[in-house]
Amino acid sequence: MAGRIAVIGSNNVDLVTTVARLPARGETLAGTGFSTGFGGKGANQAVAAARLGSAVTMVTRTGDDGFGRDMRRNLQTAGIELTHVTPAPGLPNGVASIFVESSGENAIVIVAGANGALSPTDVDRAASDLARCDLILLQLEVPLETVYHAVAVAGGLGVPVILNPAPAAPGLELARLRGLGWICPNETELAQLTGLPVGTPAQIEAAARALFAQGLGNVVVTLGARGAALVTAAGTTPIPALTVAPVDTTGAGDAFVGAFAHHLAAGDAPERALRRASAYAALSVTRPGAQSSYATQAEFAAFLATQPSTVQS
């Protein structure tokens, strides 16, 4: 049975330029294509979970502009509950300028816009709906005080929290995040959170264990094409990635986190939820865009049917 998830976080309109390679400083290059789409780490994770069948409510601020109205329609189309999706008067919607190389790798510049107006008060207004959720998802594209407050509110409600600590925030106060159910950094974020090297698998495990020891919940380190690693009190479990031909890696990390949340909320064991999340992210990189690359439940089931039994189980 599908679970209920709340996502407290960002939304952005993506402005995507495709290029053979990224320009050097001071260099002008001709691009090979341009498109607009919808993104933001919060909205991406919400859409991924909703497409897989979770009941998703989002707490976010949209812009007082055309992009903001477009975003609201996009979230509604994805099946996300909009009660706590509110415009920020006088502010533009968040935007992300994304440059995608022919290899599929990308570089991104984000302007927060209305995301910077998401406040602890917005979280408090949503408390009655948060209390009905199986999981709450957080990221770091909104003010840190709002993130800390959301963790505290969730703790008071007894609702587990998954924090995706992205983008890396140098001023993040880990002591104010104690009590998380899960924290899901990538390698770069893990290094910044712990101050430890992450150049080898042994170093990654040591850094993840150091993070776990701070009371931040179970640790899932995403490793891109190398899969992920789950670190709990019981030990470390590698989660393999599927081998695919990447088209566009934009939003793959969010696909992973959203799918992980969906499967956890549905009652799957963590290892199974992570195997499914890894497969969902792999499917996403074979398609262009962020949210536009996220499969529906039926599409994902068809993809899984082509994979080894270890992925399907």
From TrEMBL:
<feature type="binding site">
    <location>
        <begin position="12"/>
        <end position="14"/>
    </location>
    <ligand>
        <name>substrate</name>
    </ligand>
</feature>
<keyword id="KW-0547">Nucleotide-binding</keyword>
<keyword id="KW-0963">Cytoplasm</keyword>
<feature type="binding site">
    <location>
        <begin position="253"/>
        <end position="254"/>
    </location>
    <ligand>
        <name>ATP</name>
    </ligand>
</feature>
<feature type="binding site">
    <location>
        <begin position="222"/>
        <end position="227"/>
    </location>
    <ligand>
        <name>ATP</name>
    </ligand>
</feature>
<protein>
    <recommendedName>
        <fullName>Ribokinase</fullName>
        <ecNumber>2.7.1.15</ecNumber>
    </recommendedName>
</protein>
<dbReference type="GO" id="GO:0004747">
    <property type="term" value="F:ribokinase activity"/>
</dbReference>
<dbReference type="GO" id="GO:0019303">
    <property type="term" value="P:D-ribose catabolic process"/>
</dbReference>
<dbReference type="InterPro" id="IPR029056">
    <property type="entry name" value="Ribokinase-like"/>
</dbReference>
<keyword id="KW-0460">Magnesium</keyword>
<feature type="binding site">
    <location>
        <position position="254"/>
    </location>
    <ligand>
        <name>substrate</name>
    </ligand>
</feature>
<dbReference type="InterPro" id="IPR011877">
    <property type="entry name" value="Ribokinase"/>
</dbReference>
<keyword id="KW-0479">Metal-binding</keyword>
<keyword id="KW-0418">Kinase</keyword>
<feature type="binding site">
    <location>
        <position position="186"/>
    </location>
    <ligand>
        <name>ATP</name>
    </ligand>
</feature>
<dbReference type="InterPro" id="IPR002139">
    <property type="entry name" value="Ribo/fructo_kinase"/>
</dbReference>
<comment type="function">
    <text>Catalyzes the phosphorylation of ribose at O-5 in a reaction requiring ATP and magnesium. The resulting D-ribose-5-phosphate can then be used either for sythesis of nucleotides, histidine, and tryptophan, or as a component of the pentose phosphate pathway.</text>
</comment>
<feature type="binding site">
    <location>
        <position position="284"/>
    </location>
    <ligand>
        <name>K(+)</name>
    </ligand>
</feature>
<comment type="subunit">
    <text>Homodimer.</text>
</comment>
<feature type="binding site">
    <location>
        <begin position="40"/>
        <end position="44"/>
    </location>
    <ligand>
        <name>substrate</name>
    </ligand>
</feature>
<feature type="binding site">
    <location>
        <position position="293"/>
    </location>
    <ligand>
        <name>K(+)</name>
    </ligand>
</feature>
<keyword id="KW-0119">Carbohydrate metabolism</keyword>
<feature type="binding site">
    <location>
        <position position="289"/>
    </location>
    <ligand>
        <name>K(+)</name>
    </ligand>
</feature>
<dbReference type="InterPro" id="IPR011611">
    <property type="entry name" value="PfkB_dom"/>
</dbReference>
<feature type="domain" description="Carbohydrate kinase PfkB">
    <location>
        <begin position="4"/>
        <end position="294"/>
    </location>
</feature>
<dbReference type="Pfam" id="PF00294">
    <property type="entry name" value="PfkB"/>
</dbReference>
<feature type="binding site">
    <location>
        <position position="141"/>
    </location>
    <ligand>
        <name>substrate</name>
    </ligand>
</feature>
<feature type="binding site">
    <location>
        <position position="248"/>
    </location>
    <ligand>
        <name>K(+)</name>
    </ligand>
</feature>
<feature type="binding site">
    <location>
        <position position="287"/>
    </location>
    <ligand>
        <name>K(+)</name>
    </ligand>
</feature>
<dbReference type="GO" id="GO:0005524">
    <property type="term" value="F:ATP binding"/>
</dbReference>
<comment type="similarity">
    <text>Belongs to the carbohydrate kinase pfkB family.</text>
</comment>
<feature type="binding site">
    <location>
        <position position="250"/>
    </location>
    <ligand>
        <name>K(+)</name>
    </ligand>
</feature>
<dbReference type="GO" id="GO:0005829">
    <property type="term" value="C:cytosol"/>
</dbReference>
<feature type="active site" description="Proton acceptor">
    <location>
        <position position="254"/>
    </location>
</feature>
<dbReference type="InterPro" id="IPR002173">
    <property type="entry name" value="Carboh/pur_kinase_PfkB_CS"/>
</dbReference>
<keyword id="KW-0630">Potassium</keyword>
<comment type="similarity">
    <text>Belongs to the carbohydrate kinase PfkB family. Ribokinase subfamily.</text>
</comment>
<comment type="pathway">
    <text>Carbohydrate metabolism; D-ribose degradation; D-ribose 5-phosphate from beta-D-ribopyranose: step 2/2.</text>
</comment>
<dbReference type="GO" id="GO:0046872">
    <property type="term" value="F:metal ion binding"/>
</dbReference>
<keyword id="KW-0067">ATP-binding</keyword>
<keyword id="KW-0808">Transferase</keyword>
